[in-house]
Write a structure and sequence with these properties.
Length: 220
């Protein structure tokens, strides 16, 4: 698995690089947002550990551009800001998780395992809905052997909708089960991730798969 560490503090970047390499990951480092975008254009990354405050292009803008380009890996935002507004902002721009500095390396390692769903053993059963086959043990989605690349959070959204195929799922329920009930219910995170998910499904399959039922929620 390949990880990109984007951190302008060289001592911290080096420490994270060494620690992740010791865990068996292939690790690249970028020291500013522009360099990070260049790196992601050259190589595929399973996870990006992305500092919020970066020179040239800040972390929020890097994350926004990556998701606009349909980057399907996990993004863990690293930030010294502990306020709820900053966390929500990062999630709204497409981050899958966030970690407030200073943090223990063991916690970052656990977040990487969680966001990539690489823990040992099966997590949930394979689910089939509307011709889609969703395997949460691999974070894979297929239809007629056609693979569809999704981010970890997009996969969780689609998986939850597939488990409740045909029922309109309110945004509040998605927040509770796909994120957590501590998230601001007025955040645009669900809408942003849902729009990206819809676009990927439509681009891959040529037909809309998720519809919105006014006043009720989203339905697969």
């Amino acid at each position: 698995m390949r990880v990109l560490v984007v951190e302008d503090e060289e001592s911290l970047a080096s420490a994270l690089e060494r620690g992740l390499q010791n865990l068996g990951y292939t690790v690249d480092v970028a020291y500013d947002g522009e360099e990070a975008l260049e790196q992601t254009g050259k190589a595929h990354y399973d996870v990006i550990c992305l500092d919020l405050n970066l020179p040239r292009v800040d972390g929020l803008e890097v994350c926004r551009r990556l998701r606009a380009e349909l980057f399907s890996g996990g993004v863990i935002m690293l930030t010294a800001r502990s306020g709820i507004r900053e966390r929500v902002e990062g999630l709204d721009h497409g981050a899958d998780d966030y970690l407030v500095k200073p943090f223990a390396f063991s916690e970052l390692a656990a977040r990487i395992r969680a966001v990539t769903r690489r823990e040992a053993g099966p997590l949930y059963p394979v689910v089939s809905a509307r011709g889609l086959e969703l395997n949460p043990n691999r974070n894979s989605v297929k239809r007629n052997e056609l693979s569809i690349e999704l981010t970890p959070k997009e996969f969780e959204l689609l998986y939850y909708l597939a488990k409740h195929e045909g029922r309109a799922i309110p945004q509040e329920e998605l927040i509770q089960h796909v994120w957590d009930d501590r998230m601001n219910p007025f955040t645009q995170t669900v809408k942003v991730h849902m729009n990206n998910l819809r676009r990927k499904l439509t681009n891959s399959l040529g037909e809309p798969m998720i519809t919105t039922v006014r006043g009720k929620g989203y339905v697969l």
